[in-house]
């Protein structure tokens, strides 16, 4: 990877000597999949099939295939694969079947006669219930290493669980058995696994969620919204989760304080601050190789309202996931919902404005993103240290600007953990950057900071940093959720 970065960095030298300022399109190109006028492609799930076609599920209950999805837009054609499903959000190919998570069940579909249309539809699991409330979506993941699909079930509206398992994460194994797994879910926008096989989901701002965020799912965990406790008397819950629910969190409190009271509570791994990085965090993927630039294994997280994608860089500190969110891409056609990364280096992102509206402007769209081979000057990673943060960069930095504390600024805040909808930014702090030490290879900077606050989002602006070739950072803002301060 280092060799690749150096070569691409050399290509960028021209920008530093009077050429136009770098822009997103220098590094990543968009191809919009053509959609026939009679198709409403409100994309809700994406999966690559063994025949090289891209399967696209829609909010309206259809599944289409796109031929030649890695080629030119003019050569792409849509064909109907299945119809009549109930809001399938999340489709995944596994062992000869296309699995679809519908609002009411997990279904598997097979094209037995090879004509490009689904012939066999089998219910895998329908162990949860629905009321007809618009909010009761179901999001399904790919299978984990143990052969389980993870499904997160939205509440009835924002506040209530009016039917069994709403507000829960459940696992569905290949036998179709449903296993209650985690409580406290509110309003997911996506679910998936990282490169280590750990499961995450996105939850949206609302009651018990001050801002949209990425959360880590583990068996037995509580994710913040206590409405799900209503179903603890079900025998299956007691079998897999124990006889009693966790302690109910106190409203109008703070996450670090409630973590002490509610031992099962897992704090958000990364907050995507409301209004800054997005308003409705949705699906995500991760670049599994270096064909998408130097961001291998970082989560690429979509936002439905702002039609953008952010990078989320996670690490474990004291056994707890936490990390930084940095804006990555804008300019998608509609409100981003599902995303899928293909090993060829193509990122597919689809979505709909659905009535919430979206910055992209189109009612629905499906975009493919490819890397040009040029590396943008970006913060590559942001890691917590006992007395500050360490930044790594995609290019060599200019030691003079990167080593000057005036090139940086930081402020921090948190959110109220409460039963009301959302939260303002509260408990503001201004951590002091006291030193910036550039490593000998000019690839990283160690920031020593006084006044770090456990449980706060730390907003770092690195606007004064320049690369060796005098480039500014393409995205100078980073938002780090500091659940734990590393031990010295």
Question: What does it look like?
Answer:
The protein is mainly beta. The protein has 2 domains: 114 residues, Immunoglobulin-like (Sandwich), CATH 2.60.40.1220; 337 residues, 6 Propeller (Neuraminidase). The protein is 6% helix and 39% strand. The protein contains 4 helices and 32 strands. The strands form 7 sheets. Strands 18-19-20-21-32-31-27-28 form an 8-stranded antiparallel beta sheet, with no helix packed on it. A 4-stranded antiparallel beta sheet has the order 1-24-23-22, with no helix packed on it. A hairpin with a 4-residue loop joins strand 7 and strand 8. The radius of gyration is 22 Å and the shape is globular. The N terminus is likely disordered.
Sequence-ordered SSE layout with sheet pairings:
Elements: H1 2-11, E1 28-32, E2 43-48, E3 54-58, E4 63-67, E5 77-82, E6 91-94, E7 97-101, E8 106-110, E9 120-125, E10 138-143, E11 148-153, E12 168-173, E13 178-183, E14 188-193, E15 199-203, E16 213-217, H2 235-241, H3 255-261, E17 270-271, E18 281-286, E19 299-303, E20 308-317, E21 320-329, E22 336-342, E23 346-352, E24 364-371, E25 379-385, E26 388-393, H4 399-402, E27 409-415, E28 425-429, E29 432-438, E30 444-450, E31 457-461, E32 477-481
Antiparallel strand pairs: 1-24, 2-3, 3-4, 4-5, 6-7, 7-8, 8-9, 10-11, 11-12, 12-13, 14-15, 15-16, 16-17, 18-19, 19-20, 20-21, 21-32, 22-23, 23-24, 25-26, 26-30, 27-28, 27-31, 29-30, 31-32
